[in-house]
Amino acid sequence: MSEIRAALVGACGKMGSLIIRRILATDGIVLSAAFDLVNIGADVGEVIGAGKLNVPVSDSKDLSSVLKETKTDVLIDFTIAPATAVNAPAAATAGVNLIIGTTGLTAEQKTNITDAVIKNNVAAVISSNYSIGVGVFFKLIKDAAKYLGNDYDVEIIEAHHNQKKDAPSGTAMTAAEIISKEMGGKDLVFGREGLCPRGKEIGIHAVRGGDIVGDHTVMFIGNSERIELHHQAHSREIFVGGAVMAAKWVASQKKGVVYEMSDVLN
Ligand SMILES: NC(=O)c1ccc[n+]([C@@H]2O[C@H](COP(=O)([O-])OP(=O)(O)OC[C@H]3O[C@@H](n4cnc5c(N)ncnc54)[C@H](O)[C@@H]3O)[C@@H](O)[C@H]2O)c1
Fold first, then answer.
1. DSSP-derived secondary structure for the chain
2. Which residue minimizes the CA distance to atom 30 of ligand 1?
3. Has 230 been annotated as catalytic?
4. pLDDT above 90 (res 1)
5. Whose CA is nearest to atom 36 of ligand 1?
6. What is the pTM for the complete model shown?
7. CATH numbers and ranges of domains, the chain
8. CA of 137 to the centre of ligand 1 (A)
């Protein structure tokens, strides 16, 4: 297959700039366009310190026309939920496949994106976590939930850097969904304060501070023992590699489908 032409929304952000650098270093994929709210008109390579790339930072208001002009195959979006809620359906309408890394999307926003993917017959990967290790972590917690069942209380603790805008993390929410499904349905309780006797629930707690890249602990707590499964991201590079892998993968998949990272890894 010919080279995949990939564009970034959130190109000047922490994830966007690392993904552009990885695209530059990866065979079979090229950077076609870059979008952000800041540095509009500047060369994106110069903005991220990668040298001149002759790809300007475009305003996401011009997303559809720029994607068409640059013959983009796939749009990679790592921004914030309200931005993705607008940009992802616009890209799908322009016939462009999607890799969505933005977390904090509401159920309604996800449904709208899925509808646009189906209606416009493109393919998408939406994942709260593009790391390979977290793919395995999700499998392990699913097994633990299956074997331990409702005799064990479940608590999820996540920790991230002090710049993270949404809480709890998308990964913590995905973990809770996996466990709840396996245990036949649980309420989610976010932090606790005051009188709050424990019910049929999964407790979710968010820690924010310093430069923590991303820690997730799932505790299965019984009466005389507990199991704790812990994943720790040492660097954003683990998400970057997975996102670029997904971008190369998605372009050749069956259209009209929203995939998960587990589909890419399988
Ligand atoms: N799925 C994963 O594996 C994974 C991993 C890390 C981070 N994330 C998520 O990715 C997102 C970005 O994280 P980050 O650390 O790079 O944040 P960041 O704040 O460093 O970067 C976000 C960028 O998006 C830009 N932006 C905001 N609104 C925009 C709009 N309407 N159009 C164009 N650009 C816009 C901002 O200007 C900024 O440059 C967050 O939701 C974060 O939780 C996901």
1. -PPEEEEEESTTSHHHHHHHHHHHTSTTEEEEEEEESSSTTSBHHHHTTS---S-BEEEGGGHHHHHHHTT-SEEEE-S-HHHHHHHHHHHHHTT-EEEE------HHHHHHHHHHHHHTT-EEEE-S---HHHHHHHHHHHHHHHHHGGGSEEEEEEEE-TT--SSS-HHHHHHHHHHHHHTT--EEEES--SS----SEEEEEEEE-TT--EEEEEEEE-SS-EEEEEEEES-THHHHHHHHHHHHHHTTSPSSEEE-HHHHH-
2. 83
3. no
4. no
5. 10
6. 0.91
7. 4-130+237-265 (3.40.50.720), 132-233 (3.30.360.10)
8. 23
